[in-house]
Amino acid sequence: MADSLSADGSNPLQKAKRFLCINRRAPYGTIYALESLEVVLAAAAFEQRVTVLFMDDGVFQLVKGQETGALGVKNFSPTYKALESYEVERIVVERESLERRGLAPKDLVIPVEILGESEVSGLFESHDILLNF
Amino acid sequence: MALLHTVNKSPFERNGLESCLRHARDGSAILFIEDGVYALLRGAEHATMVEQAAPRCSMYALEADIAARGIEPKRLIDGVKLVDYYGFVDLVVAHDGVQSWL
């Protein structure tokens, strides 16, 4: 049916949305980080195009060497290593957020794409759906 | 009269640390717990203000919260003593009161 096609000839119903998941909280003080991770895995499992962004205190989610035994809560940081196999398109960390916290990319559990503030601003515009945690 | 102050929120998100450091009198103790421990990261934005208060207040951090967040003790600013949960209780008992900067 011609009228169901968009201008470029693609079927809009089949076009995956671009999701940006914005993580701004430290991992254990609140439930946000864990909830976000579950949403990202679910979205990726449904073959959506997902970018995960870590900024502000969210960068603490990726810090290596988390040992939560004494707290009695689950250490979910190893799960970030699964994002690539779930075909999450991009994993982005804001450079300034790392620097303010005395952290460097080598302190993180996975290799990430480091972007500066102005490039991060562009992410908010280049995605269809913004999910904040 | 010496109080124990506890700080449990990230200094990047809340101003409890600043208020604590403004109000903690000389000779009091400050215990960093939960997300409050991020104030102690060497090279991070809040390290200097905590270091400046360290000569007049004893600084402690809860070991379990440091470990959970992947912070090795060597990444902490100098002069912070680590305590376990029993040490937390000992600090409460040893002081005249507890002010929790929630």
Rg of chain A, nearest Å: 17 Å
Number of strands of chain B: 5
- Which range does the strand content of chain B fall in? 15-25%
Q: By helix and strand content of chain B, what is the structural category? A: alpha/beta
Based on CA atoms alone, the radius of gyration of chain B comes out at 12 Å
The count of strands of chain A amounts to 5
The low-confidence runs of chain B, each spanning 5 or more residues with pLDDT under 50, are: none
Structural class of chain A: alpha/beta
Instruction: Write down the oligomeric state.
Output: heterodimer
Which fold name is given in CATH as the topology of chain A? Hypothetical Protein Ychn, Chain: A
N-to-C SSE string of chain A, H for helix and E for strand? EHEEHEHE
Count the DSSP helices of chain B: 4
Specify the biggest β-sheet of chain A: 5 strands, parallel
Report the CATH architecture of chain A. 3-Layer(aba) Sandwich
* Overall outline of chain A: globular
How many structural domains can be distinguished in the coordinates of chain A? 1
Strand order of the largest sheet of chain A: 4-3-2-1-5
The CATH class of chain A, by name, is Alpha Beta
Helix content of chain B: 25-40%
- Name the strands of the widest sheet of chain B in spatial order: 4-3-2-1-5
| Global morphology of chain B | globular
Condensed summary:
The complex is a heterodimer of chains A (133) and B (102). Chain A has 133 residues and is an alpha/beta fold. Chain A has three helices and five strands; from the N terminus they run βαββαβαβ.
Q: How would you portray this structure in words?
A:
The complex is a heterodimer of chains A (133) and B (102). Chain A is α/β, with parallel strands linked by helices and 133 residues long. Chain A is 23% helix and 18% strand. Chain A has a single domain (15-132), classed as Hypothetical Protein Ychn, Chain: A (3-Layer(aba) Sandwich), CATH 3.40.1260. Chain A has helices at residues 32-45, 95-100, 117-126; strands at 18-23, 49-54, 90-94, 113-115, 129-132. In chain A, strands 4-3-2-1-5 form a 5-stranded parallel β-sheet. The mean pLDDT of chain A is 91. Chain B has 102 residues and is an alpha/beta fold. Chain B is 30% helix and 23% strand. In chain B, strands 4-3-2-1-5 form a 5-stranded parallel β-sheet. In chain B, strand 3 (58-62), helix 3 and strand 4 (80-83) form a beta-alpha-beta unit. Chain B is globular. At the A-B interface, loops of A face helix 3 of B.
